[in-house]
Amino acid sequence: MNDKYDTANNLLLLKKYGIPIVIAVTVVFSTLLILDYEEKNIRTELYHTQIEIQQAVTDSISKNISTELKLIFLELDILANSKDLQEDFQSEESLLLMKTTFKKINQITSTSTILLTDSNSMVTVELPLENNLFIGTKLDGFGIRHAKATLESQISSWAGSDNSGYPIALIHPILDENKNLKGMLILSLPAEEFFGRHGNLYDIDSRFLVSLDGQHRFVTNPNISLIGEDFYEDKVQEFIDRDESFYSHYVDVFKGNSGVAIYNIDGNEVIDTGSPILLEDKYILSIFVITQTSTLVEKIDEIMMSNKIVTIAMLSIIALALILLFFRRTQTLEKEKLTIIGQLASNIAHDMRNPLGTIKGSIRIIKKQNTDDNNIVNNEIERINRSIQRMSRQVEQVLNYIRNTPMTLETVSISEILQNSLDVIVVPDNIAIDHPKNHKNIMLECDPQKLEVVFVNILINAIQAIGKENGTVAIRANEETNNSISIKFENSGPNISKDDLTKIFDPLFTTKLSGTGLGLSGCKNIVEQHGGNIKVTSNPVIFTITMPKIQKND
Questions:
Q1: Where are the beta strands (DSSP E) in 241-281?
Q2: pLDDT of the chain, 554 residues: tens digit per residue
Q3: Could you tell me the pTM of the whole model?
Q4: Which of 364, 452, 454, 494 is deepest in the core (most CB within 10 A)?
């Protein structure tokens, strides 16, 4: 009797609690399966996204470096073919011209030294003059021998005296009118700084950049012991444990192909994206960006583990877990968006700076050949130069938004910066610039070139806003406190709507049919670098910049 009662009681208990338990277990189990499936998908998607973004960044760095090297070789070619250098290496005019070229190249990228050798590779001139490390030294090496044999420009590397890697040597032969070798110009670039600066555009730590020269020697590498070693030698192959995927990946890049490889090194799985650096379609260098996949896996594990615990403990917060996943995916999309902006900057720099450099060089030649001082030719040259400046500003607007290069601080007057800014723009006859002279008494510690970019952008915007109507742009500078100044730009153009006022410094926002939408956001970036702020008001339209007179030392 008791057995029947117990059986019936158990059936009742099973009916009462069994079905909800089964449903709960099914829901939990199903949720876990869904989460596991989602984890695999996210892991796969994150790997794919990382590879895609990393390869795009690597290719962009390669293009940027190629563009800069072309501009540097253009300056060296102009110097090598100059009349003064052709006549006498040791003249004061030749030395002055070398100093000017050295300064121009340093505006493109940081340069260690520039050497001038005779036809026997003996160094006769060295800049900076205070160095005198190589004067009287006969230089030798693969790049120099190859340049003498082919009478063509070369890029090589040589052993440096510091721990920053092998400096990059840009070698340019000097030929007389009969194409005989008179000497060589050799420019030295600090390797780690040169490559790392390009990586910084994309927030890539220079420790994760690897580069090799045209002879397949490591120029930069996180493992300092490999710098200067030939990739094909036993030391390097033993270090990579003769990994076939590693080896094939690098060899493929040496052949001129971009690519990616995933392999293990020192027990860590890495994603390695590589891209060749080409000059006139010839392989000269290669660049690789390396990312440890453990950082990606850790992100996924953290997200999924927290989601599993939350799901098991309380199914009601699954929605919150999905929101967290969505938030993580949104971050990935935001990263892609920033990468696209970076690619936009690289593409503009690559596609515009090359032809601009060519046009610039051609204009110099035309101007040199205009011995009759033809006014028509001179006027056309000026028009082309203004166009080059305008296009260069478009490139700089984009680059000012994404890059954060170190400031070169000088103490200058507001008046000098404003005058330099006005000198590079064309002010129509219908617009008056009210520029009080007392600004020269207000001194400021700043990077004047960066601040000129800000002033030029604001002035051009004011001129474009006024248009063809008669109008004025009034500039006022005042000392607000002992270490604070304000500069105000007021224009008589139309008012700015309330909606536009809130978005005017946002990247990619513009009300013009043409323009990048990055000019004012780049201005904001530069002003904030100086520890200041910029704002705009309407009715009348006034741009106000407030910043310290003396920069704080970090």
A1: 259-265, 268-279
A2: 445 444 544 544 444 444 445 555 565 566 666 666 666 776 777 788 888 888 998 999 999 999 999 999 999 999 999 999 999 998 999 999 999 999 999 888 888 899 999 999 999 999 998 877 889 999 988 888 888 999 999 888 875 444 445 788 999 999 999 999 999 999 998 888 888 888 777 777 667 889 998 889 998 888 888 888 899 999 999 888 888 989 999 999 999 999 999 888 777 888 999 999 998 888 999 999 988 887 766 665 665 565 556 555 555 555 445 445 544 554 555 555 555 665 665 566 556 666 767 777 777 777 777 767 777 777 777 777 767 766 766 666 555 555 556 788 899 998 888 888 888 788 898 999 888 766 777 888 999 888 998 998 899 889 988 888 899 999 998 887 778 899 999 999 888 888 888 888 877 666 664 555 667 877 888 898 888 999 999 889 999 999 998 877 65
A3: 0.51
A4: 454
DSSP for residue 287: E
Q: Are strands 443-446 and 484-491 parallel, antiparallel or unpaired?
A: unpaired
- Coil/strand/helix, residue 284: strand
- CB neighbourhood size of 308 (10 A): 17
Q: Which residues 6+ apart lie within 8 Å of 553 measured at CB? A: none
Dist. CA 542–CA 470, nearest whole Å: 18
DSSP annotation of 553 reads P
- Per the rule left: phi > 0, alpha: psi between -120 and 50, beta: everything else, 374 is beta
Query: Which token pair is 115?
Result: 């050497």
- φ, ψ for residue 180 (rounded to 5)? -95, 145
Identify which of 189, 188, 225, 219 has the alpha carbon closest to the alpha carbon of residue 206: 219
* Rounded Cα gap, residues 17 and 92, in angstroms: 100
Sign, CA torsion 397/399/400/402 = positive
Residue type, 17: Y
SS (H, E, C) 333-380: HHHHHHHHHHHHHHHHHHHHHHHHHHHHHHHHHHHHHCCCCCHHHHHH
User: How many CB atoms neighbour CB 537 within 10 A?
Assistant: 14
Tokens 């490591």 sit on residue: 218
Q: Compute the distance between CA of residue 257 and CA of residue 253 in angstroms, rounded to an integer.
A: 5
Q: How far is CA 524 from CA 231, 528, 545, in A?
A: 45, 6, 9
Q: Are 483 and 550 in contact (CB under 8 A)?
A: yes
Q: Is the peptide bond before 128 cis (omega within 30 degrees of 0)?
A: yes
CA distance 374 to 367: 10
The β-bridge partners of 189 are 168
- What's the chain's length in residues? 554
Strand order of the β-sheet with 181-189 is 123-127, 113-118, 181-189, 168-175, 154-157
Q: Each residue of 340-357: b (16+ CB within 10 Å) or e?
A: eebbbbbebbbebbbebb
